[in-house]
Amino acid sequence: xxxxxxxxxxxxxxxxxxxxxxxxxxIVRNNEGTYFYTSITIPPGAETMYLSGSGAQSLxxxxxxxxxxxxxxxxxxxxxTLEGQGWSMSDIVQVRAFAVAGDEGLDFAxxxxxxxxxxxTADNPNKPVRSFVEIKDLVVEGWLVEIEIRAARMP
Length: 155
Known about the structure:
Layout: H1 3-23, E1 28-32, E2 37-41, E3 47-54, H2 67-84, E4 92-99, H3 108-115, E5 129-134, E6 145-153
Parallel strand pairs: 4-5
Antiparallel strand pairs: 1-2, 3-6, 4-6
Helix pairs in contact: 2-3
């Protein structure tokens, strides 16, 4: 094989190697904090699912529970929905929470306590990016938090 043909052959092999490695893209999570990442990169070709704002269901006594309980209830319902469609909580890449202050003020610690039962755990070490916004009111009387999520996974 001549020097020129050998060079072309090596060039072609490196291109083939490059194309196979670039097609094996993954969702990349960056800058891990205690409760969330500050950025997540989702490559082309990823499947996505969006779940609209949801909140707690009232308890048997007609009350809604505190911030922690409402957060757990809401994420439990998201988990049910995701798993029912073949997804998992580890596929969640974004959480947006809208919260109102209860009688005791805004219970951010209660939200984090409930949230921590679903993310950064042994069952789900993944954490999403996250926004937490305090607002004046929510549509449903008694809700302290309404949450929406975005999930992504590679096929």
